């Protein structure tokens, strides 16, 4: 029988204890069903309590490039600061 090591509990188990994953080279998930069950229960509890952390900075999709709103706002702030400096330098 073929075996595999779980990445969560680090135990070597038979392949029947792993879920399927079409993308993986061997066709199985990297963590065993027991570890995934514990993870999913913990995740659902954290989500219900509101302790589920999502990405805090919104992301904008420009074609294939994902740019965080933080970076966009920083660029706009730099441009505004440059305009303010130019206005100060102009006589008038």
**Helix percentage:** 40-55%
Number of domains: 2
Multimer state: single chain
In DSSP terms (H or I, runs of 4 or more residues), the helix count works out at 2
Sheet bearing the most strands, described? 2 strands, antiparallel
Span between N and C termini? 85 Å
Could you give the order of the helices and strands?
A: EEEEHEEH
The counted number of beta strands is 6
**What ranges have pLDDT less than 50 throughout 5 or more consecutive residues?**
none
- Mean pLDDT equals 79
**Strand residue percentage:** 15-25%
Sequence of strands across the biggest β-sheet: 1-2
If you had to describe this structure to a student in words, what would you say it looks like?
With 92 residues, the protein is an alpha+beta fold. The protein folds into 2 domains: 3-49, no CATH class; 59-89, no CATH class. It is 41% helix and 24% strand. The chain contains 2 helices and 6 strands; from the N terminus they run ββββαββα. The protein has helices at residues 33-49, 69-89; strands at 3-5, 12-14, 18-20, 28-32, 59-62, 65-68. It has a two-stranded antiparallel sheet with strand order 1-2. It starts with a strand and ends with a helix. The relative contact order is 0.09. The mean pLDDT is 79.
């Amino acid at each position: 029988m073929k075996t595999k090591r779980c990445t969560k509990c680090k135990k070597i188990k038979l392949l029947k204890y792993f879920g399927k994953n079409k993308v993986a080279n061997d066709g199985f998930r990297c963590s065993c069903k027991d570890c995934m069950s514990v993870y999913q229960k913990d995740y659902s509890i954290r989500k219900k309590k509101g302790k589920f952390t999502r990405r805090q900075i919104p992301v904008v999709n420009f074609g294939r490039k994902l740019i965080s709103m933080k970076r966009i706002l920083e660029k706009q702030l730099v441009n505004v600061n440059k305009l303010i400096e130019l206005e100060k330098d102009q006589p008038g």
